[in-house]
Amino acid sequence: xxxxxxxxxxxxxxxxxxxxxxxxxxxxxxxxxxxxxxxxxxxxxxxxxxxxxxxxxxxxxxxxxxxxxxxxxxxxxxxxxxxxxxxxxxxxxxxxxxxxxxxxxxxxxxxxxxxxxxxxxxxxxxxxxxxxxxxxxxxxxxxxxxxxxxxxxxxxxxxxxxxxxxxxxxxxxxxxxxxxxxxxxxxxxxxxxxxxxxxxxxxxxxxxxxxxxxxxxxxxxxxxxxxxxxxxxxxxxxxxxxxxxxxxxxxxxxxxxxxxxxxxxxxxxxxxxxxxxxxxxxxxxxxxxxxxxxxxxxxxxxxxxxxxxxxxxxxxxxxxxxxxxxxxxxxxxxxxxxxxxxxxxxxxxxxxxxxxxxxxxxxxxxxxxxxxxxx
Length: 375
Ligand code: SF4
Ligand code: SF4
Fold this sequence. Notes:
This protein is an alpha/beta fold. The protein has two domains: about 270 residues, TIM Barrel (Alpha-Beta Barrel); about 70 residues, no CATH class. The chain contains 16 helices and eight strands. The chain has an eight-stranded parallel β-barrel, surrounded by six helices. Helix 9 runs antiparallel to helix 12. It is globular. The mean pLDDT is about 90. Bound molecules: iron/sulfur cluster (2 copies). One iron/sulfur cluster binds next to helix 13. One iron/sulfur cluster (SF4) binds next to helix 13.
């Protein structure tokens, strides 16, 4: 990243729409105004992907940004849709399409999109890392990396097998930081151990941390009057060492202006503010459905090896997130379920309930997990 560059990126995956039912109907007039203001206030980073907004986000970027501003006014990142790759030729074909859709001769950052167990297997089989490396050598890409949605062990493996990547994009927010399901902190620590710069996605947890419960908002107000709930979430992520960029999927001018107000002259979080966040996390967790402590006493004896605390954590987060459509928790659940038994595989033997120090009705909760996350 450029030294002194502002640490807020405009994520082009939740842009305002003219038809709320159709993600491809982006409100171009409003996005144009947002881009103009964003650049005018000294920000420069834009994040898009092949598949955002029903495959139209890259075209929107061309229309509102690259066709209107000189190439050195902005930093542009897009992503190879790893999940759609069938054969090696797809890499070159899609990359060429992306350059044309975005209307640029090179990308500043180019990432393999959404690596997890399954997509990493595709990337390995088709040599996708070699492809992006070669694009960097050819000057069509400045920096390479991947966005990631899985656990710390696989991240460690990928970074060990591909130590030359420049950057990793991770889901980090204060509520997922210590959660057993998403494991933000552990993934962050792996990336730092490998010496990687980190781009943060979902700092506001898909909008959930912008709309916090009333008692939490009172805590924020008492600490820093007049600051939005989103400001706490974005500043938390931006304050971590090694985080070079925080993406915010801004959906209207009001959100953009709010984000700009505290990121224009970004001040890292003070210790006293971190203490407020610790209280907030414990309040939000206290309001969670399943009071599992993640002790793992129940898992060793499970005949079908269900990762019980992990599924409970994802369920709790799902319940807090006031989901609209796409669910990150569901993506993580599906990833886990590829290598472990699903919640619905429970044999109701009762072993786990006998072990649980919290006396949780595990069998009943697993049924709820299956209902909510196995759609
Ligand atoms: S009741 Fe279900 S989750 Fe619990 S140990 Fe038996 S099979 Fe595993
Ligand atoms: S034993 Fe109970 S508290 Fe511990 S991980 Fe299992 S369900 Fe959670």
